[in-house]
């Protein structure tokens, strides 16, 4: 059975996720841990549950989602997977991190690139990569059809969507990603976003003020 543990890290209040099951294997998605106590909180949970970290995944590479990349790679010896179109976004973080108060940011380079339709497997779980640009040029989401969950990053939030005023963002592209990739999923699929509380596809299709669709 898939289990999901979430942590809220850094001043941006970013959601970091650890996904694991009875096999003891896990993946870490978007580690935003920057302060030592945040990194310790993440490590303590993994240790307490006796988990083996298999890989590190970024939905996208804005600063708040990658602050803990280097820590996770070094501590657990795992590979970092991102979409190729977000590699420039990741590389840019080093230049502007001090301006946001993250002078001790350590850069981590990707080890492999994710592609649309690719299957990500660990333990007894399988997630399909969905390419959902608009908030970031190489944004992806991770969909588990069996468990009916999608890790949406900063594409879709509870009654909101990701901002599109950052470099590489585009409003029309984001809305198209939501309608074509997320709103085509079953209504009961639970959305685990990059910020804020969980929601579900059906609720957002009916109520989201930015992207709701009207049934005919």
TrEMBL record:
A matching Pfam family: Lactamase_B
Domain Metallo-beta-lactamase, chain residue ranges per copy: 13-195
Segment forming the signal sequence: none
GO MF term list: hydrolase activity; metal ion binding
Cofactor: Zn(2+)
Gene3D superfamilies cross-referenced by the UniProt entry: Ribonuclease Z/Hydroxyacylglutathione hydrolase-like (3.60.15.10)
InterPro entries membership: MBL_Glyoxalase_II (IPR051453), Metallo-B-lactamas (IPR001279), RibonucZ/Hydroxyglut_hydro (IPR036866)
Keywords: Hydrolase, Metal-binding, Zinc
Protein name as catalogued: Glyoxylase, beta-lactamase superfamily II
């Amino acid at each position: 059975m898939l289990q999901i543990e979430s942590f809220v890290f850094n001043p941006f209040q970013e959601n970091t996720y650890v996904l694991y099951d009875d096999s003891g294997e896990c993946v870490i998605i978007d580690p935003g841990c920057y302060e030592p106590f945040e990194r310790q909180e993440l490590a303590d949970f993994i240790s307490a549950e006796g988990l083996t970290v298999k890989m590190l995944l970024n939905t996208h590479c804005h600063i708040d989602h990658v602050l803990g990349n280097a820590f996770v790679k070094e501590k657990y010896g795992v590979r970092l997977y991102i979409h190729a179109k977000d590699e420039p976004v990741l590389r840019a973080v080093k230049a502007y991190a001090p301006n946001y108060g993250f002078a001790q940011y350590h850069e981590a380079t990707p080890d492999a690139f994710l592609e649309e339709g690719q299957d990500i497997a660990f333990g007894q779980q399988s997630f399909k990569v969905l390419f959902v640009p608009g908030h970031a040029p190489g944004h992806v989401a991770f969909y588990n059809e069996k468990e009916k969950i999608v890790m949406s990053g900063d594409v879709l939030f509870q009654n909101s969507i990701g901002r599109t005023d950052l470099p590489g963002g585009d409003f029309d592209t984001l809305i198209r990603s939501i309608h074509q990739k997320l709103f085509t999923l079953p209504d009961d699929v639970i959305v685990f976003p990059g910020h804020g509380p969980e929601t579900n596809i059906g609720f957002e299709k009916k109520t989201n003020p930015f992207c709701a669709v009207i049934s005919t």
